[in-house]
Specification:
Layout lengths: L6 H22 L15 H4 L3 H17 L4 E4 L23 E8 L1 H5 L6 E7 L4 E8 L4 E6 L3 E6 L8 E2 L8 E4 L15 E4 H4 L19 E8 L3 H10 L3 E4 L15 E8 L2 H13 L1 H5 L1
Parallel strand pairs: 1-2, 8-9, 8-10
Antiparallel strand pairs: 2-3, 3-4, 4-5, 5-6, 6-7, 10-12, 11-12
Organism: Acaryochloris marina (strain MBIC 11017)
GO molecular function: metal ion binding
Protein name: Inositol monophosphatase family protein
Length: about 290
């Protein structure tokens, strides 16, 4: 689309309001009141909804419509916000006509339970692949961003994009993250690794790392039953640009975004090394793919 902003320009435009949104989410976390939970979700992580989700989405929508009134935009709470009707589209566009996505509070359950590993995630999606992702961790005062083919960078929340340092994941812990529900199908991942399974490890008192921990070297890999455009697939893109291997469950390159359904990519593997990737492929072949066949 002619005269459309570049992915970097979109991130630069949104970073200042996102800093305010991050401060807002951090300041009210201890007193936040939960809204009625979503009824169309299969697990209590996806079902959680808070005032912060709705407020941050509205705030980002105002910033986008003020700066780029012709932009495509899909936010997690698009059905509840008053601004969806003002965007040109909520769908992926043709090549070069970017779709901006938002998860206003990724990890709302973590957020409501008082943990610090929730995020605000913005994506810039092209017809085939992500062009950029920005993920802010308000309670940890840091953020990550990646540009397609350029790499992933991290820095404190008050740093500009240029001030962030290129991310390198070194000496990751031998911990494998399993997406919700996979514990029933993948009982173990071999003697070389431990499993982080949210379904069994997490509680409101017990902290358990989310997939974003792979960016900090706290995970060696992850197996996801699917990757939503707004969160799991976006984090996978950050990991990939940081040097991780990201493939389908059978080891193939991820299919183009426009072939996906319901704003999510199919099951995927994220690995910090070729060795980890091969180990996880073998686990999936012996468990998920066998049971599916």
């Amino acid at each position: 689309m002619s005269n459309s902003p570049t992915p970097r320009q979109i991130l630069e435009t949104l970073l200042p309001p996102l800093r305010l949104a991050a401060a807002y989410s951090k300041n009210i976390q201890s007193v936040i009141a939960a809204c009625p939970e979503k009824t169309d979700q299969q697990n209590h992580f996806g079902a959680a909804l808070s005032d912060a989700d709705l407020s941050i989405q509205t705030f980002v929508e105002v910033a986008l419509l003020g700066a780029y009134p012709q932009i495509r935009f899909y936010g997690e709470e698009y059905e509840k916000t008053a601004n969806t009707k003002y965007f040109r589209s909520i769908d992926l566009g043709p090549e070069g006509d970017y779709l901006v996505t938002l998860d206003p509070i990724d990890g709302t359950r973590f957020y409501l339970d008082g943990h610090d590993n929730y995020q605000i995630i913005v994506g810039v999606l092209n017809h085939d692949e992500y062009e950029a992702v920005l993920a802010i961790s308000p309670a940890q005062d840091c953020y990550y961003y990646a540009l397609r083919g350029v790499g992933t960078f991290s820095g404190p929340l008050d740093a500009s994009l240029d001030q962030c340092q290129k991310l390198q994941i070194e000496n990751p812990k031998p911990l494998i993250y399993l997406g919700w529900g996979l514990s029933d199908q993948i009982p173990d991942v071999g003697p070389a690794y431990q499993i982080n399974d949210l379904k069994t490890a997490y509680s409101d008192e017990q902290f358990a790392p989310n997939i974003n921990a792979i960016l900090k070297g706290e995970l060696a890999g992850a197996i996801l039953e699917s990757g939503k455009f707004i969160d799991g697939a976006a984090i996978a893109f950050l990991a990939q640009e940081a040097g991780c291997i990201v493939t389908t469950l059978t080891g193939e390159p991820m299919p183009p975004l426009h072939t996906s359904q319901n704003y999510q990519r199919p099951g995927l593997i994220v690995a910090t090394s070729a060795t980890v990737h091969q180990d996880l492929l073998q686990v999936v072949a012996k468990t998920l793919l066998v049971s599916a066949g």
